[in-house]
Amino acid sequence: MDDDAYPLGQSATVGADDIAAAWRRELPGVPTHSIPVVTPIWRLAKLLADDRRRFLADQGVDAATLDLISTLRRAGEPYTLSTRELAARCLVSAGAISQRVARAEKDGLVTRGPARGRPKTVPVTLTAEGHGLTDRLVGELLRREAELIGDGDHETLAAGLRELLAAVGARTAQ
Amino acid sequence: MDDDAYPLGQSATVGADDIAAAWRRELPGVPTHSIPVVTPIWRLAKLLADDRRRFLADQGVDAATLDLISTLRRAGEPYTLSTRELAARCLVSAGAISQRVARAEKDGLVTRGPARGRPKTVPVTLTAEGHGLTDRLVGELLRREAELIGDGDHETLAAGLRELLAAVGARTAQ
DNA sequence: CGGTGTATGTTTAGGTCTAAATTTAGATCT
DNA sequence: AGATCTAAATTTAGACCTAAACATACACCG
């Protein structure tokens, strides 16, 4: 019996070109030229995110919290942004920021001020502890990331990505 | 009073170059040359994933389930893979596959066979309903994706991404 | 001067993931 | 045969996210 007519055992690494070829075989006529661009982007994002998550877990921090405090740190003095502004810069929903801030506040990394101004606006400010933690982690993280992508020349790749991001951003903005 | 010394109101779109410049200003000496490559990759991945999630939500399907059934569909006859193999191809943990399969099985999209072979191996097979749903959705999804990235020539971008993925993959493999 | 509008922030319901603990079914050794 | 080993699968605990419902505060207008 051909008990091995389908792969139940060993795993094969499937590349983007294999995926595109498989769809052309299974669904002739469907456009597949986006696959060699989109698949590596998703895989790279996942590899980088996983690597960062594992490193941060060792330090007792989660990636969402680092994203929050490093956005505040990067903004410079006085290290304060509104919930709305944080949502826009972190690219997550306002609800997600509300939850992130609650966690970070419990850990003493940020403080929440009283609502103020026209539509009630809540200022979130980095504490000294949050400031120090951010500096320690971001330096190490950027050094790891620089090692991961290597020393080669990524000028043209960066330019291509910037252009694609602008195009996709324009077309997905409703 | 300078009540607007920090941006609590309107949101500015912050590009990768702004982020790199901010870190050079706030943390001199930290390497920032990975940022113009890594940031657009994360943002593109998020834009594409969000667009896909919204489209699928309208169809009553979630992205994780489509990833599962399209991986089985793409494998070709007899549309069967083990849990382990699915985890490797979908790039998620075995536990996540177990949960995805449980949901998809409840919806009648896949069936789980009895364990078999040396280390117990569970075959997961696409049903006729799952087969049809996949074909309907994948065609539409690839057409949307092709529109999003546009008609330009992405040959060199794809090559650069493939090369970077190989390099990062080699360096993150423990 | 009180209703209506509008933008913000918070809460909640539902769903996903990872890591770790647990279960399970053959293989192997004595 | 029985103990032990091993790899796979499942379960569970803990975190996170989005979308939608809800709460809030001020501006504006009739």
UniProtKB/TrEMBL annotation, chains A, B:
Lineage at the top is:
Bacteria, Bacillati, Actinomycetota, Actinomycetes, Micromonosporales
Where the record annotates domain HTH marR-type, the positions are 34-170
Query: Which keywords describe this protein according to UniProt?
Result: DNA-binding
| Any one Pfam family match given in the protein's UniProt record, by short name | MarR_2
Top-level taxonomic group: Bacteria
Gene3D superfamilies in the cross-refs? Winged helix-like DNA-binding domain superfamily/Winged helix DNA-binding domain (1.10.10.10)
UniProt xrefs under SMART domains: HTH_MARR
Organism field? Phytomonospora endophytica
Which protein are we looking at? DNA-binding MarR family transcriptional regulator
Molecular function (GO) terms for this protein are: DNA binding; DNA-binding transcription factor activity
Q: Does the keyword Secreted apply?
A: no
What InterPro entries would the database entry show? HTH_MarR-typ, WH-like_DNA-bd_sf, WH_DNA-bd_sf
